[in-house]
Request: fold
Amino acid sequence: MSKKIGRNDPCWCGSGKKYKKCHEEFDSKIVHYANMGHEVPDHSMIKTPEQIERIKESCKINIAVLDYVAENIKAGMTTEEIDKLVYEKTTEMGGIPAPLNYEGFPKSVCTSINEVVCHGIPSDDVILKDGDIINVDASTIYNGYFSDSSRMFCIGNVSEEKRKLVEVTKECVEKGLEMVKPWTFLGDMGQAVHEHAVKNGYKVVREIGGHGVGLEFHEDPWVSYVSKAGEEMLLVPGMIFTIEPMVNMGTDKVFVDEKDNWTIYTADRQPSAQWEIMVLVTEDGHEILSY
Ligand code: MF3
Ligand code: CO
Reply:
């Protein structure tokens, strides 16, 4: 919002239209919110229709990868085998797994079982057993555009307690999603997520959040799921971010594995669940891009 554009100059969004016929009014609306003290997005967080189309292509692969995992995941399998499924499906469709070599991450996907909150590293030594709950978090780069979503899988006979955690966490994402519309705030979404978790006796991880995504793996804004309505960043059409709360059965405290510097565990070793969707803010609401 800082660069001065003439009213007859081409709009910053790349539409080719004059600024005054395109985003001028939109920008002044944002400035109005900023003047009221709200955090507001800058132009780099607002995707153009062309970028959105390309990001959707990446999402298609990400969804297909998770569908492929869903068809094949079973007790007795190692998380290394899940990694292979993800690598094969992603590359077969022309994509690159975004986690691979991302800040030194050694595998193509995150696999987080039971008390692992997130960023579990696939391994030959980790075998899925009856009663486990696992999050498989896939992210794809396609023609330079990023997608990111994750699902939970219940392996065999899962206890009623753990199954409920998985279900309620999914509901948390849905409750948050309902709040996503332009000219509201990220905190409206975050509060809805948090309230539903707390109502069911759970806690939401505070230190790890979601993020903008599309042109990069992790973009601004950082997204909290313990935020308050009316707070956090203003949402405007063209923003894309993730809803990916980590919901814990016990304490919300977590710690990172000192040996691998990636794996996050619950401090009390009680189970944690997470679902992640990637959402676009549209003119009149939202659209789910990846799930
Ligand atoms: N997919 C994770 C997310 O939701 C990111 C994992 S980073 C990795 O943001 F390197 F561990 F893959
Ligand atoms: Co994410």
